[in-house]
Design goal:
Number of helices: 5
Number of strands: 12
Distance between the termini: 27 Å
Number of domains: 2
Largest sheet: 4 strands, mixed
Shape: elongated
Bound molecules: zinc ion
């Protein structure tokens, strides 16, 4: 089984466990079940004035049972290698699969998590922090949280405390920046910790060509926040991929 690994800024997909053949004792195998007498109709196939519904054969079923019998799930037997994985018990992973935890942790260490203001409040962020994010740049949303302004209030508190801390206008600006930066770092660290604990699909943090995003961003709005990955631009991604080819 090949492991999924990070190579530079590329994700190299390995294999993942096959989900279709995990039955204990029958790993990697296609399983069928012996038949047993239907307990409801005692094998007659009739109940009341009609057919027994408990053992009625569904038209879509592959397992053709005699009338009056049901599958005995206590008695499985192997009929051949698992059709999904050819009996290998693992399959090549793709970008919709969840990243193994250690790989996600490594990815977070590699590109980091940053918090930023978003949307309507952008003008404030531009003015004070020099940050600008247009919708076109933001891709691959990991998740959104409606926190009823909790994260937002923490930033506003940081601004208020900064304002109150100094009397000189220039110093006040600097004090606000320092406090907002600290509050953002705190929120980013909390999100990073959550991401280390949760499963994340590869496609949420990796471009279609396998190049890892530039940064994970926590975009804070007045009523909550969205976690997104900022993709690297096409030129940078091509350069990363060509280095590998060379
Ligand atoms: Zn029956
Ligand atoms: Zn399988």
């Amino acid at each position: 089984m090949r492991e999924t690994v990070i190579d530079g800024y590329r994700l190299i997909l390995g294999d993942r466990d096959c989900h279709m053949c995990r039955r204990e004792g029958f790993e990697g195998q296609e399983v069928a079940f012996h038949h047993k007498t239907c307990p409801k109709c005692k094998g007659t196939g009739k109940r009341g004035s009609g057919n027994c519904r408990n053992c009625k054969q569904e038209s879509w079923s592959r397992d053709k049972r005699p009338v009056g019998t049901v599958l005995d799930y206590e008695r499985p037997y192997a009929v051949g290698p698992c059709r999904s994985c050819d009996g290998k018990r693992h399959k090549p992973a793709d970008l919709s699969d969840y990243l193994p935890e250690p790989v996600m942790a490594q990815l977070i260490d590699l590109i980091g998590v940053e918090a930023a203001f978003r949307g309507g409040e952008l003008s404030w962020a531009e003015q004070h922090l020099g940050m600008l994010f247009s919708d076109g740049e933001l891709m691959m949303s990991l998740y959104s949280v409606v926190d009823y302004g909790n994260a937002w209030r923490r930033l506003q508190t940081a601004v208020r405390e900064g304002r109150a801390s100094e009397t000189e206008t220039s110093d006040r600006e600097a004090a606000i920046k320092v406090r907002v930066k600290a509050a953002m770092a705190e929120i980013a660290a909390e999100v990073a910790a959550k991401l280390r604990d949760d499963s994340t699909q590869a496609c949420k943090v990796v471009s279609k060509d396998g190049v890892i995003g530039e940064k994970i961003l926590v975009l804070i709005a007045p009523n909550g926040y969205t976690v997104v990955t900022r993709e690297r631009d096409a030129e940078t991604r091509a350069a990363i991929l060509s280095q590998v080819a060379a």
